[in-house]
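Input chain follows. Return structure tokens only.
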Amino acid sequence: MEIKKIKIITPNKKATHAESFPMAPPVLAYLAALVPGDIDVELFDTTKDPIDYDSHSDLVCISFMTPMAQQAEKIARRFREKGVRVVVGGNHPTFNPNEVKQFADTVFIGEAEDNFPKMFEHLKNDEFYDFYICGDYDYIPNLDQLNGKVFHLKHRPTLDNSPIPRKDLLKNKYRFDTIQTTRGCPFACDFCSVTLAQGGKIRSRPLEVVKKEVQSLGKTFFMIDDNCFTAPHIVEILKELIKSKKKRLWGASGSLSVVNHPKCDEILKLAAKSGLRLLMVGIESVEKANLLSCNTAKKIGHKGEPNIEFTKNAIKKIQSYGITVVGFMMFGFFDEEGTIFEKAYRFIKETNIIPLPGIVQLLPKTKLYYRHQDYLIPRRLGQYDLFGEPFITHYINKLTPYELESGLLNIEKKMYSWRRIFTQLIHTKPGGAQVLSLAILLAMRRISRYYLKKLEEIRLPDEEQLLAPKFLELKKAAE
């Protein structure tokens, strides 16, 4: 099969989010860099780029996570109707290969560095595979029952030969550039799929490659490592940023556990000097029982039993370097009560973090999914939210779906009120930290107000406003 031109596409669930957080989709440019140089590549970020279904393409590649699965399917089916071969990959196809094979010719399970170039070799020689697997995914149920021809590399990519992304092919300019220096997460929280998809061992891109990419970054960027502080070369990377002639503002994902690092003060001092002004961390919950139930205390940095005072002190330590802390917080743990919203709001005011709230999701193949899959809400099968969206996909013990969803949106109304935004900013270090903080606060205000207006429209019917025990009772009675 001769391949002269391909399209690489990232679906997005709602433009509301992407317009609010204008960041270049990192997977687009990275996949483009893995394509042989004699092939013409066109990139589509669907929040900005209308997909051209009519121009010729020999191959279409779609990478997506679970919240975007429904849109990915629509795109794939439309191209296949035109006779175009479709390849899919990303987290959702990795964990649901047989499901997505229904609308794709080829499914990638795992990471792309080794298998994506290999696929082009195979196609050139008219070798067609239904599945490409990279890594040991034996823990995924039914992997041995894949319906089709399989090409399997047993090892995960080392990242030693990872390319510099082809950002020159992006059609649009973005407010935030991106860079990734490591992959993998050792913490394996029960609700998260990162360790499943990328492994528990931290793998690093070569320092010289990262340094070269650092020099090409724009003035504002985001480091998309799951925890920037676990990068083995983090000190060298920060020094490279400081050495650069560009004065940059940047954000990153990290962990409060940095305060336990033997070089904590050196790292935070260098990070602040290099322009780090926004650190996103998983706080997850202010309830000890919730942290214990999902095996997430170690990730946050707790030694032994979770201690909310440790969390507060760790936040204060990071903020002392002029770095704003943005906290991911989840609502809807299985035994959570209605008092959680006010408890969380008091914590937010006391610590002066920027909150990014969301509802607990049962992502496919996670430990939390297998624990509570009997409580999935039938009407919402396949619906998964992004942060800020008020959808719960399963029943819980003590709050109905509407009590949880309305509780979240009403507390968001307080979190992102003009009074709260103003208070947040006057307690934030003047300059870049205020600029980045304001951007996130306004984005979250926009998203929360959008869904608050639609609350009655999206709520489940009264007869489906159930607690988990009642749902299970009705479900068994119907069987």
